[in-house]
Amino acid sequence: MHQYALLLAYNGTHFAGWQEQAPGRGVTVAGEVKRTFIRVFNHQISLVGASRTDAGVHALGQVAGIRTTLDIAPDTLRFALQNQLPKDIYLRRVIKVSASAHPQKNVAWKEYQYHVARRSVMPYLAPYCAQHPYAIDFDRLSWALAQFKGVHDFWAFGSSSSDYAGVSTICSVTHASCSRLRHTGIVRMVIRGDRFIHHMVRRIVGAALRYASYPELDEAYIYSTLTRTVDRMIIPTASAAGLVLRKIVYREGEGYEWTS
Fold first, then answer.
1. What is the phi-psi region of residue 123: left when phi exceeds 0, alpha when psi lies from -120 to 50, beta otherwise?
2. Range of lowest pLDDT (6-10, 35-39, 76-80, 225-229)
3. Where in the chain are the domains?
4. I want to staple 55 with a disulfide (CB 3.0 to 4.6 A). Which of 17, 28, 59, 234 is the partner?
5. CB atoms near residue 91 (< 10 Å)
6. Residue/partner pairs of 151-154 with CB below 8 Å, 24 or more apart
7. How far apart are CA 93 and CA 77, in angstroms?
8. Within its chain, how far is the Cα of 254 from the centroid?
9. Environment class of residue 23 by beta-carbon count within 10 Å: exposed (0-12), middle (13-18) or buried (19+)?
């Protein structure tokens, strides 16, 4: 059995997320990659991704693992797949890895970026930028994001599906910041951590934007979101359109040669 690691970028606008779905529930990124491989090589594979991005979420650095009995040169595999993949999916790199490597294990950190603007942006940017029509106090936004750094129980930022699955809600956020992109009117938020539960990044963004846009909210609003006593409904879930899985970095020695 041979295993390959794929570094993928995609525009998630027209996909029902990364993970394959039951028939009739939408086209997914993983489904398209798998179907393309089978069509090109006439061979079945197993495919697993490092992150299950939601419907409408984009990626610059998704990592996926393909297991197959075929022994193919990585450059040949990349060339053959890229020529047949939909235009919304771009295969950035392919390497051969050990049979024990797994895209969801030994992750050092993941980085997400979120882009938001008050007004319409240039058409080539629009699919990757959420609209937020309210004034944004940049200092309040920066302060709110900083409060999420560290090891916290992010239960309130997850979905009920995490509860049923028994997933740990303790996560370590190592970086959370914002900046303004010149000449575009876009605000970029960068959030980095060891792991994220379902909807966590979009709800961190939602809470930070709400605090930044409603001056009547005091600091207690942000502090309260990091307790299990809060009502999840007070934390809005930001639009998927602005979210990009930017980068996944693995611990040294895991066979993945890239860090971006």
1. alpha
2. 225-229
3. 2-105, 107-246
4. 17
5. 21
6. 152/226, 153/226, 153/227, 153/228, 154/197, 154/200, 154/204, 154/226
7. 10
8. 21
9. exposed
Strands 107-117, 130-131: pairing is: parallel
User: In this predicted structure, what is the pLDDT of residue 165?
Assistant: 65
Helical (H) or strand (E) element with 208: helix 200-213
Domain 2-105: give its CATH architecture: 2-Layer Sandwich (3.30)
**pLDDT surpasses 70 at 112:** yes
DSSP string covering 43-109:
---EEEES--PPTT-EEEEEEEEEEES----HHHHHHHHHTTS-TTEEEEEEEEE-TT--TTSSEEE
Domain 107-246's class?
A: alpha beta
CB distance 211 to 222 below 8 Å: yes
From the list 54, 88, 163, 194, the catalytic residue is 54
Please check whether residue 18 is in contact with residue 32, taking contact to mean a CB–CB distance below 8 angstroms.
no
For residue 142, the surrounding DSSP H or E stretch is helix 138-146
Question: How far, in Å, CA of 17 to CA of 55, rounded?
Answer: 4
- Both tokens assigned to 29: 């990124």
Q: Is the pTM of this model over 0.85?
A: yes
**Are 77 and 39 within 8 A, CB to CB?**
no
> Does residue 259 have a pLDDT over 50?
no
| 54 catalytic residue (yes or no) | yes
